[in-house]
Write a structure and sequence with these properties.
single chain, 5-stranded antiparallel β-sheet, mainly beta
Length: 209
């Protein structure tokens, strides 16, 4: 029997149903007849989308058909964290769109933790000599500039920023005009990743040895 039974057919999240923002999972649609037998693809048109009252969102890759398992599959990439949403598969049947919606599991996108900032001095700071501080981010950031993160106790100085690993690690060469403390301070939100998540606050004091 080639007639599709929508009560027997399924849309399933075959990968993890709860993922972090920016991660991926796989969804598949299997069309079956009234006896529960998987059918070959009904036609050449298939799309996946999210539906329901949840707030998670993302994008689906162009579906591909697995002739062995007789199912359509797509990769979902999360772009916005939020509450669970169901997955809908829509295909054309005699030129008319027919939709099949998952119940459980649905897809939930979790937020990422704030970007952590780690700072370490390279070597030993001596008197008024220039010194380097490496700044490392736990995730790649879209842009970074020194701005007002450096403060000098009782004097001033110059600072030059260089990139070690794009988006992840930078080196600051600091040349103070005295031997007092130099403080590097990141307020929350100084940098952000491509999804808009910002850093947590961090500070580092470079003292003369």
């Amino acid at each position: 029997e080639l007639v599709i039974s929508y009560t027997q057919s399924t849309v399933a999240v075959t990968g993890s149903s709860t993922i972090n923002n920016g991660s991926t999972t796989t969804v598949c649609a299997t069309f079956k007849n009234a006896s529960g037998v998987s059918l070959a693809k009904p036609d050449e048109s298939m799309t996946f989308s999210l539906t329901g009252a949840g707030t998670s969102s993302g994008t689906f890759s162009s579906p591909t058909y697995d002739s062995g398992l007789k199912r359509w599959c797509s990769t979902f990439t999360a772009t916005t964290d939020g509450t669970a949403k169901e997955v809908m598969a829509t295909h054309l049947l005699n030129g008319n769109p027919q939709s099949l919606t998952s119940t459980l599991p649905s897809i939930t996108v979790n937020p990422l933790s704030p970007i952590e900032v780690t700072m370490n001095i390279q070597g030993v700071r001596a008197a008024e000599s220039p010194f380097d501080v490496d700044i490392t981010f736990s995730r790649s950031v879209t842009s970074f500039g020194l701005g007002g993160i450096i403060s000098y106790s009782g004097g001033s100085g110059t600072a030059t920023l260089s990139e070690i690993t794009p988006g992840l690690q930078y080196r600051v060469n600091i040349d103070p005009d005295n031997s007092d403390d130099v403080t590097l301070t990141f307020g929350g939100g100084e940098v952000a990743d491509s999804l808009g998540y910002i850093n947590s606050a961090a500070s580092f004091i470079a003292r003369r040895v």
